[in-house]
Amino acid sequence: MARGEDPAPDVYVGLLFVAVASLLVGCGFLILEISSYGWQFS
């Protein structure tokens, strides 16, 4: 591999993006669930 060349993304980089996206979606569902109990942001 020559200097200055970025390594090609592999399956683990894809899994990292899937994990981050699932965390964001889970946080969104958590906010929706908590707001149904009348909780509000301060």
Task: Please provide a written account of the structure.
By secondary structure, the chain is an all-alpha fold. It is 60% helix and 0% strand.
Keywords:
mainly alpha, 42 residues, elongated
Pick out the low-confidence regions: none
Query: Helical region count?
Result: 1
Helix content: 55-70%
* Percent of residues in β-strands: under 5%
Largest sheet: none
Structural class: mainly alpha
Number of strands: 0
The whole-angstrom Rg is 18 Å
Terminal residue distance: 52 Å
**Spatial shape:** elongated
SSE string, helix = H, strand = E? H
Multimer state: single chain
Instruction: Give the overall average pLDDT.
Output: 89
SSE layout and pairing:
Layout: H1 11-35
Structure summarized in a few sentences:
The chain has 42 residues and is an all-alpha fold. The protein has one helix at residues 11-35.
